[in-house]
UniProtKB/TrEMBL annotation:
This is 3-oxoacyl-[acyl-carrier-protein] synthase III C-terminal domain-containing protein. Pfam families: ACP_syn_III, ACP_syn_III_C. Residues 257-332 form the Beta-ketoacyl-[acyl-carrier-protein] synthase III C-terminal domain. Coiled coil: none annotated. It comes from Roseiconus lacunae. Gene3D superfamilies: 3.40.47.10. InterPro entries: ACP_syn_III_C (IPR013747), ACP_syn_III_N (IPR013751), Thiolase-like (IPR016039). Residues 112-178 form the Beta-ketoacyl-[acyl-carrier-protein] synthase III N-terminal domain. PANTHER family: 3-OXOACYL-[ACYL-CARRIER-PROTEIN] SYNTHASE 3, BETA-KETOACYL-[ACYL-CARRIER-PROTEIN] SYNTHASE III. Keywords: Acyltransferase, Transferase.
């Protein structure tokens, strides 16, 4: 479970599209009485990507902010990893679209996409840590840009009311450490149909789209059963992580900060109680930004860093679940 941590986050950035959608507007879209979205889902506002903004422009804003925060230039970036769930086009990769938009300064930097829905940023950090062990990379840029509201099913208010759009980016620097990096990742594919989009791939190609099948091309979630599965499977994984952390950290669990995937207000609060972390070290903004899929966690990292809520060298756990059903956690020192 544990290997050496080989990086430090030296820059972060986030971007929220200009259009703000209130809970009252969501009530109208999902055809519910005024106040339904806030009372049932706990979401007050979120942002929506509408023209002329695109997921590429959002991602580039976040990238520029992260690079400026890191104090480096494009000549210092050795790798770009996009971990978004949203796709600007099926081919080529999102990361190449960001590079094209940025222009000549970014030419030649290798670009890839790494997709694991809501867990994308956790896996991108773990992947980057492994790349740094080769000694071939100095700086890796991770970006997630999500336009989730384009793909929600407004006939399913419990799901559609949770999501929001936005982008976030991180700059990781090769920095060998004496600290262990703890990582766990589990998939239980018997539950894969609990979160899905049937249309758009090989299973149901986009060229077969018909207007009366529109819902098959939108996000579908059995929220009640996803919650039940997570409630059963997530606590044992987190407990193992905490035990492994305690084996090598004399300060105990009392300094550990946690950023969960911003799935829903009710879900993140229940997870906090289960893992027994006080609110001042458990960082959440889902009521204001909604579930930003893979951008949720790096956006929260940017918030806590720039609000000075995360002390230097503080241990940080990133935690979440995703379609699959998958769950993952990573603990490293900030």
């Amino acid at each position: 479970m544990g290997i050496k941590q080989n990086f430090k986050i030296i820059g972060s950035g986030s971007y929220y599209p200009k259009r703000i959608v209130t809970a009252e507007e969501i009530d109208r879209r999902v055809k519910r009485a005024p106040g339904w979205t806030e009372s049932h889902l706990g979401v007050r506002t979120r942002h929506e990507c509408v023209a002329p903004e695109t997921m590429v422009t959002m991602g580039c804003h976040a990238i520029e902010s992260a690079i400026n925060d890191a104090g480096i230039g494009w000549g210092d970036v050795d790798y770009v990893i996009d971990c978004s769930t949203s796709k600007f086009r099926p081919i080529p990769c999102n990361a190449a679209h960001f590079q094209q938009s940025i222009g000549a300064a970014a030419n030649g930097v290798p670009c890839i996409d790494l997709q694991s829905t809501c867990l994308g940023s956790i896996l991108a950090i773990q992947f980057s840590n492994a790349l740094f062990t080769t000694g071939a990379y100095r700086h890796i840029l991770i970006v997630a840009s999500e336009s989730a509201l384009q793909g929600v099913d407004w006939c399913d208010p419990k799901s559609a009311g949770l999501f929001g759009d936005g982008a976030a980016a991180l700059v990781l620097r090769y920095s060998p450490s004496d600290h262990d990096l703890l990582f766990a990742h589990e998939t239980f594919a018997e539950h894969l149909d609990l979160c899905k989009v049937d249309g758009g791939g090989h299973f149901r190609p986009s060229y077969q789209y018909r207007s009366d099948d529109d819902r098959e091309y939108r996000f579908q979630m059995d929220g009640r059963n996803v919650f039940r599965v997570a409630l059963r499977l997530l606590p044992p994984m987190v407990q193992k992580m905490k035990e492994a952390y305690l084996e090598t950290n004399v300060d105990g669990i009392n300094c550990l900060h946690v950023i969960p995937h911003q799935a829903s207000p009710k879900a993140v609060e229940l997870v906090r109680r289960i893992i027994d972390i006080p609110k001042d070290r458990y960082h959440v903004a889902v009521r204001e930004i909604g579930n930003m899929v893979a951008a949720s966690i790096p956006a929260m990292i940017d918030r806590v860093r720039k609000s000075n809520l995360l002390p230097e060298q503080a241990p940080l756990m990133l935690l979440g679940t995703s379609a699959g059903y998958s769950q993952a956690a990573i603990i490293f020192h900030s």
